[in-house]
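Thread: Newbie trying to understand structure tokens

Hi all, I'm a second-year student working on a class project, and my supervisor (Dr. K.) asked me to get a predicted structure for one chain before our next meeting. I've only ever worked with sequences, so writing a 3D structure as a token string is new to me. If someone could post the tokens and maybe explain what I'm looking at, I'd be very grateful. Here's the chain:
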Amino acid sequence: MAKTKRRGLVPLIIVGVLAILLVVAYFLIDSGVRAFAKDRAEVEISNRMPASVTGDITVTIGGTSVIAQFIAGSFDEIELTAPNLAVDGVPASVHVIAHDVSTNTAKAIGSLTATLDLDQDAVNQLVRASGTAPADAVMTLGDGTVAYTGTVKLFEFNVGYSATATASAAGDTLNFTPTEATVTSGVGDIDATPLVNLILQQAPIAVCVASYLPEGVEVSGVDISPERARVTLESSTLMLTAQSLTTLGSCAG
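---
Reply by user tm_fold:
Sure, no problem. This is what the structure looks like when written as tokens:
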């Protein structure tokens, strides 16, 4: 009787072992598919970036199973990292997280959040390119603020000043609004208070970044530290098509 029971258990043991092997094989295959999908995504995204963008991009596909996600028609999370990207010669470290990415590239990504880390030189390149800052302005990154110098005309004299500004995001624009100012040269015995007030009442230095970004991607935040300016971007309309990725926004004027 015991022998009969043992014989009856053999098929169950075999089935159990086969089931385990199939699960292991599935995840091994899934891992291979994940690696293939990752490599393919890196190539496709690199090929579809605008000609003005250079640098290597690393792709990570999240979720438990690439196969299951592919069959479902949508990837839970795709992460892109490009620590040494350059856009029109402006260097940046880029990190992108996209959720609900359809396998149909004609459908918009569910949500996309990206951060760009710009060093001080990159910020100054953007500011100079904007044409809204004093021609001789040089920005220095600080703890939550930027400092810059410039000159203004007063009674035929060039008056030098230094200012401190806070940064904010507004759609496609980074605004640097002066909060403090000090006259550094050129006024002699003249009371500088009216000039300081004039500097503080000037319109913010507006740096439009739309022409650096795919259309539909907007600036949602900016954080300043001495090491970098971290710009946060968001979009819920971007698609992974050549047209969507290479159609850049535009700045008014």
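A couple of things are worth pointing out once you decode it. The chain has one domain: 1-253. The mean pLDDT is 82. Feel free to ask follow-ups in this thread.
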